[in-house]
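Hey, can you fold this?
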Amino acid sequence: MSTVMSKETARILKGVGGLYTAEVIGGGMEGTSGETVECRAKGSFRREGIKPLPGDIAEFERQADGSGFITRICERKNCLIRPASANLDLLLFVVAAAKPDPDLFLIDKMLSVVSHNGIDVLMIVNKADIGDAEKLCSVYRKAGYQAVAFSAAEHEKYKDIKKYIREFVAGKVSFFAGASGVGKSSTINAVFPELGKLLETGALSEKINRGKHTTRKTELYKLAPDTYIADTPGFSMLEIAQYNMIPKDMLIHAFPDIEKYSHGCKYSDCTHICEEGCGVIEAMKEGLLSESRHDSYCLLYKELKKQNEWDRY
């Protein structure tokens, strides 16, 4: 007699050592929506080059002991290598107004990747108490991104911003990211204190189990119905960005503020770097486009041109 009890669908919340924690999203014969189930995945995934990721929607078979056996990963709308995650709606991108000073090129590199993957962005410019956060916000609002000035150190003065952020993530699968020193953890604790407690507990468990202070895994935390937030380990931009996966001819689409002026170019094969008759260059001269954004685009394009024929994969 088969040990399979029912077939169900779930969202993977985390995976450690081949064991996955998944949340049922539509009760099966035995399951209840919202129930968490420990699952293992079928061995053929490895041969097929498929790795279940946090955020994946998966079909699994309920076993007699109540555990699950993942048999299919549903089609993904996006996928990031680092942080290892899938089906993301929103990046909560924490940057600092000062200490450390913002590196616009590294910020733009990150944004190019999330734009390429169809992920929305809410930029949280922290440390507004010691730096000109509004100046940085204006650069990225002009580029079409949502950006808010914030101070985790003085968060009681930013109650409206905290409310705005919480409302912005409702109904989305979001993830926090930010380079070392920008105040990502303090921002999480200020805006999502309930998430901060979960992360603190998880970090303690990780330290006890592995003897380390940091973890490389990504885990989704449920804050409300259909609202999930993943915290990601502190990253270096080169690790997380994976910008080299973007074909150089597709880079323009990862800079939507630049792309909208590219349709006015004289030549169809314009690279938008310095060509005569380039609509992008004209827009920059007219003050319609941020010079720093164009500088970042040019640097990335030149980097991709050097390596993408043999290094992209």
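Oh, and this one too while you're at it.
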Amino acid sequence: MPFSTSLLAEFITFRLALVAYWANILLLGVIVYIAWIYAEAHALLDKDAGPLVSGLIKRRIVFAQALYAFGALLCLINPLWSIAFIVLVQLNFAIAPKIPYLSRL
């Protein structure tokens, strides 16, 4: 993330910098999803992490990636809207467990 973050900080109004940032986030999300599937397939998860927990984790990863994809599309309209959306998505995942409506997403 350091390269794409510094690229975005240096060229904040350039769409290409935002696309590079979103692509990096997408790649990391895909890696996390694959790692979870691998851990699940090879019984590396705690016994408390049953099918319900595994399904929730997978859904959260996919939902986050969908939000990031929407943010990537926003950079086509206005790069600053896309950056604002980055902040909102990150705040959602930081405080969602404390807000009843957002914790269900």
